[in-house]
Amino acid sequence: MYGIKIYNTLTRKIEEFKPVSPGFVKMYVCGPTVYDYNHIGHGRVYVVYDALKRYLALRGYHVLHVMNITDIDDKIINRAHQEKRDWREIAETYTRDYLESLGKLNVKVDLHPRVTEHIKEIIEFIQILIDKGYAYVAPSGSVYFEVDKYPEYGELSGRTNKELWSQEKEFISEKKKPYDFALWKAWKPGEPHWDAPWGKGRPGWHIECSVMSSRYLGRQFDIHGGGTDLIFPHHENERAQSEAAFGVKPWVKYWVHTGMVMMGSEKMSKSLGNIIPLREAFKEWGPETLRLWYLTSHYRRPLVFTEESIRQAQKYYERLVSVTNTIKKLSREAVSLHRMNDEDLKILEKLLEIRSRFHEALSNDFNTPQALAVISEFMTLVFKEIQYNPKYMLVLTAYKLLREFNTVLGVLDKYLVETPEELETLLDNVINIVVDIRRELRERKLYDLADRIRSELGKHGIILMDRGKETTWMRRK
Ligand SMILES: Nc1ncnc2c1ncn2[C@@H]1O[C@H](COP(=O)(O)OP(=O)(O)OP(=O)(O)O)[C@@H](O)[C@H]1O
Ligand SMILES: [Zn+2]
Question: What interface predicted TM-score (ipTM) does this complex get?
């Protein structure tokens, strides 16, 4: 099997993937600021890391996936003021929308830490930075990270020129340097606040991710994700804070960033007003199509929204459903044969070669569009060859492969489970076979075996009634 390789934004190279602890992958992804409905740009981040996690799990790793919820922030406070609502209510409303969206997209996150539930840890972390001389308290009571104390600043984003570091201009008058950034924001009237040793206030944005990732994943972990829009300043700042506080290098082994969902040549963004909310997209195209659409482009590339590209994803999804139904039908009807001819062997080899290329694509910097192209070849093989040569072994192998593909795609779950009706039919068929064999046993006067079958089935509520040579049966409800 292919070794997994992944692109690391920090080194700008595709690297061999080796987690800090063998077999255990710790992954942190920057989640949403819950001040508005999620749009289809956010959905890409959710789906890409979920699919990556599923692939790593398929390759035998245990993955712990943490995604934070930013439930206190300038954007939430502003929204609360605009709408004259409590900031907690705003956060609650859009957290619900976020969690519902994940459910629809079939994204499973292991832990969802919220900032407001980690204020104590945030204060302790800031205190460490102050004690170690990396942070200073301004006269207002705000606390800033002193960027000049961390020599590696700018490496992640490739901004080696300090001129390009300037941020949080509104605090410029009290910062030592224009590029220092807030760890703690002093309280202003009308704003939520918590008590801290240097005065009441609330956490800055970047500190939460350093704190919550280390709280759940330890002081060093494997994958840190989020959109490319977060590389500067957010991830640059997170890295500076964490490496300064822990003295561990590297804090994160692989920085993995997803490209932006674009509207034409612009990033899809609330502030530009060019968004499509996820909940509308679900109604229009369905979550499965959307999930596949995200995977049609390489995760590092921008993904430009067009109706045509979504329609293509929809067609692909319909074909996947159709191939699933075909395989299920064949698996019910296929005959088990003990012999295999050369033609069968060739098809079996083709199936296994497809499987191998599926893994080759995904293990090489998680190339999902290539994996989808390989699955497309698989579908053609089922429709053009296996359908007309439904040997049990070929059908079963195809079924197994489809399940394996879906482990990553995550769009066929409802088609791959047997429905209650299908299970009923299966059970009826199995009982009929047992009853038939029992009739033969009775004909051969092997009454002890026949009686044992009747009493064993009886224990499971299946009652056999003999009348002469014939046997009828019923299920005790
Ligand atoms: N257009 C987009 N395409 C892909 N990912 C995006 C897009 N916009 C935001 N993200 C990602 O979604 C996650 C949550 O982002 P966050 O809540 O900070 O978004 P935001 O910046 O508030 O959105 P907006 O720019 O629309 O206001 C982050 O990982 C971010 O990188
Ligand atoms: Zn973050």
Answer: 0.97
What pLDDT sits at residue 1? Answer: 76
Count of structural domains, the chain: 3
Atom 12, ligand 1: residue with shortest CA distance:
42
Give the ligand at the shortest distance from the Cα of 261: 1
Q: What is the DSSP string of 101-153?
A: HHHHTT---SB--BGGG-HHHHHHHHHHHHHTTSEEE-TTS-EEE-GGG-TTT
Say if ligand 1 is within 6 A of residue 271 CB.
yes
* Predicted local confidence at residue 261, as pLDDT: 98
**Residue 284 in marked binding region:** no
Cα 226 to averaged position of ligand 2 atoms, centre (Å): 7
Q: Does residue 120 lie in a domain region?
A: yes
Residue nearest to atom 27 of ligand 1 (CA): 270
Read off the CATH number of the domain in which 393 is found: 1.20.120.640
Mean predicted lDDT score pLDDT of the chain = 95
pTM: 0.90
Q: What is the CATH number of the domain that holds 38?
A: 3.40.50.620
In angstroms, the Cα distances linking 101 to 47, 114, 279, 291 are 11, 17, 7, 11
In a domain, 415, yes or no: no
User: From the CA of 272, which ligand is nearest?
Assistant: 1
Report CA 141 to chain centroid distance, whole Å. Answer: 39
Domain ranges, residue 301: 5-305
Q: If you average pLDDT over residues 9-26, what whole number do you get? A: 98
